[in-house]
Design brief:
single chain, 264 residues, alpha+beta, six-stranded mixed β-sheet, two-stranded antiparallel sheet, 8 strands, 43% helix
Length: 264
């Protein structure tokens, strides 16, 4: 039986490729270093559900934790309380509600909600994606992860919420930033990862296929205004997500995929 028009509008790879090309740009490392999700997504724009759920993540108020420890606790709670499933692509409130109910959620959905929990817990955050050129269908769709700023380390630190890992060179107490990871990868130096969630056992082969593949390229997702996307995704919920994202693009309020120039 042939697939419906609705399926093609929602899932067809051609629409994804067109959107990817339209929103992709190149930037220098220094330009990307300055970007922060929190700057365009103030705490008062985060939906109430995040504040309610946050009480379960941090039941003790004013608990003294470093930025990294707060980020890891958020990541562990999300991964341990969200079974996962199909990709959602909904507004941040709907996405979190569905994931908590066990109605889906992939790496990009986890990265999306992790951003907002970081904002309300005063942790600076970014969201990254991996473009992967491969014939392997299990990784061809790419991957999403985050980066948080640690005041104690005075640097950005790469955190993969869905895989419950961060990377390090020789000292596991010195986690790597995205640019440090990229530099070590380019120099073909050893990169190790630490699993920070005892309840999760990620598949090491898949992590290597995602992060150590010579044909995987990180890009930073910038200009994502959570309030804007929530508005359009909720108001136009009757339309396929690809059409909604196209409308947002035409309004000039779309997110941007920014690739570090150093990859050329």
């Amino acid at each position: 039986m042939g697939k419906s028009l609705k399926w093609y509008l929602r899932r067809h790879s051609l629409l994804y490729k067109i959107r990817f090309r339209l929103v992709s740009k190149k930037r220098t490392d220094s330009q990307l270093e300055k970007y922060c999700y929190n700057d365009i997504n103030p705490i008062n724009n985060i939906p109430d559900i995040y504040f309610n759920i946050n009480q379960n993540i941090f039941p003790i108020k004013n608990e003294d934790r470093t930025d990294l420890k707060k980020a890891l606790k958020i990541a562990r709670w999300l991964r341990n309380n969200i079974p996962g499933g199909a990709g959602l692509g909904k507004s941040s409130e709907t996405t979190l509600r569905k994931m908590i109910k066990g109605e889906g959620g992939v790496c990009s959905d986890l990265a999306q909600v992790f951003n907002n929990f970081c904002v309300i817990n005063d942790v600076k955050v970014k969201e990254w994606g991996l473009k992967i050129i491969s014939d392997n269908p299990s990784i061809r769709g790419g991957h999403s992860f985050n980066e948080i700023y640690s005041k104690e380390f005075e640097k950005w630190i790469l955190i993969d919420v869905s895989k419950s890992i961060y990377f390090y060179d020789l000292n596991p107490k010195q986690p790597l930033s995205v640019f440090e990871y990229m530099k070590l990868k380019e120099e073909n130096k050893k990169i190790q990862f630490l699993i920070f969630n005892k309840k999760i056992v990620p598949e090491k082969k898949r992590i290597k296929a995602l992060y150590f593949n010579s044909s995987s390229f990180p890009f930073l997702i910038t200009h994502y205004c959570n309030k804007t996307y929530d508005y359009f995704l909720d108001k136009l919920d009757f339309l396929p997500e690809s059409i909604v994202h196209g409308i947002i693009y035409l309004t000039g309020k779309s997110y941007v995929f920014e690739f570090p120039i150093r990859q050329e």
